[in-house]
Amino acid sequence: MDSHELQITSETRDIIIDSNSPFSPYMLPQDSYPGPTHLDDMDFNQTYAARVASTPLTPEELGLVRGHLRDIFHEEASTLLRCDRSFLTGWTRHLEMASAPQHQDSGTMHWFPNICDYANKQTAVYFVGGGPKPDSVGHHHGYMDYRLGCYIYRTWHVLHGGRPNLQRQHFFAKALRLPKSEAASWSIPGLVAAHRRLCDAAAARLGSEVVRLRCADTASDAFPQPVGTAQTWREHGLSLAHLFRAVVLVADEHVLPAECPVLPVPDISGHNQHWRVAEWLEWLMPECSVLIVRTGDDAHLSRPVSFERLIREGKTIPLGVEESRLAKEFDVVRVKIGPAMRFLLRLQAQEEAAIPSLRQASAMLTEEREGACHAWAESVLQHASLKEVGVDGNRFTWEAVRRMWAERDGDIFNHGLEDETRLTPLYSWYGLR
Fold it and tell me: What residues contact residue 370 under an 8 Å CB cut-off, 6+ apart?
């Protein structure tokens, strides 16, 4: 660990896991569910909201409603997680974006962030540059760190068909910045060294610290439920992801090209105008590029990381003079953010194909999520089947039936939530404008 010893606490700590958190993002089955509210919600297509459902549903309708309930199960988790602080403020440098461990001359490294946030992330995105005051993030042309975070969140859903595994902190990346002492004059060698320090420190904590995870509410309806016994973070299912050591992304001062083909942010103001900003961002954010840096810490991979396919397919963007010089030592390419994410997805698939334990772990996550989804949807249908409830007396079946009607007409019923997994503009984080 770069000749530094990490100081690790020895006592067992109790950690409170909130409902709908990145650890437990999904809904558990309940005996009963509330009825629909706010039927005149502006996100609802009123053509269908005003209609009354006939019961019982036909077998064909029941199958369609069951499918829409499964969509709702995933949409609810995705929507709530976007409002979690790890996403909401954790992707902004001047708010709560985490810092990599600082290089220290002393023999002991003191580094105690919320270690959960570092677990089960495929890679790290380092935000660097931005002028003499890096934390002020001197953005231009409408680019902002958290807008890139929105786009990454949305693209990650696209790449997983709208249903990524979210449980136990799983996500594409951890947003990071360099310590202030290193940020002003950052370099690729310095960044790689900082990332190695971070990986060593995080792996040591996840594998050594013993904690008890407890629900904030004993009647929590969130899934998965934490195991209340004292175990290491790793034994609780929180560990450093397979690719995290090997590859990092860097969003630097060249994140947008000098001559961007998309015009600067439009002057849009007024009530409910954020969707016009979202439409503009649909054009701007795919133009963002990042550096993909091979750290050299990939001996645990089935084969060394290679950028040959990206180069062969013409996905790379020319590097600057200094970047080109360092590329020979560290293996660095610049690509747009979409291809960068697809590259890591293919790399993960390649590793899972080569390493049975990785493949099994991924399959178990998917099976766990799908099993939870099935159990929840069936419990909703069971409640709605009660004579005194009916499909219009349960908020979830009420909506699922109207989604079914709208889908038959080639329409959308809930423009607010269905956009999450149907993968239309996803930029409704706070502070969008």
Answer: none
**188 inside domain:** yes
Q: Are 414 and 43 in contact (CB under 8 A)?
A: yes
Mode of pairing for the β-strands spanning 247-251 and 289-294: antiparallel
What is residue 123's predicted lDDT score, i.e. its pLDDT? 97
Which uninterrupted H or E stretch holds 109? strand 108-109
Higher pLDDT, 224 or 109: 224
Cα distance between residue 89 and residue 121, in whole Å: 17
Which 8-state DSSP code applies to residue 110?
-
The torsion angles phi and psi of 125, rounded to 5 degrees, stand at: -110, 115
**Assigned token pair, 24:** 């437990």
Instruction: For residue 319, name the pLDDT band (cuts at 50, 70, 90).
Output: confident
Cis peptide before 34 (omega within 30 of 0): no
Predicted confidence at residue 324, as pLDDT, reads 66
96 domain residue, yes or no: yes
Amino acid at 368: E
Give the residue among 96, 211, 148, 165 at the shortest CA–CA distance from 369: 165
The maximal CA–CA distance of the chain, rounded, in angstroms, is 73
Q: Give the domain range for residue 127.
A: 5-422
Who wins on pLDDT, 342 or 178? 342
Overall domain count for the chain: 1
Distance of alpha carbon 101 from alpha carbon 87, whole angstroms: 20
State pTM to two decimals.
0.88
Backbone torsion region of residue 334, taken as left when φ is above 0, otherwise alpha when ψ lies between -120 and 50, otherwise beta: beta
Residue 327 has a pLDDT of 63
pLDDT for res 9: 53
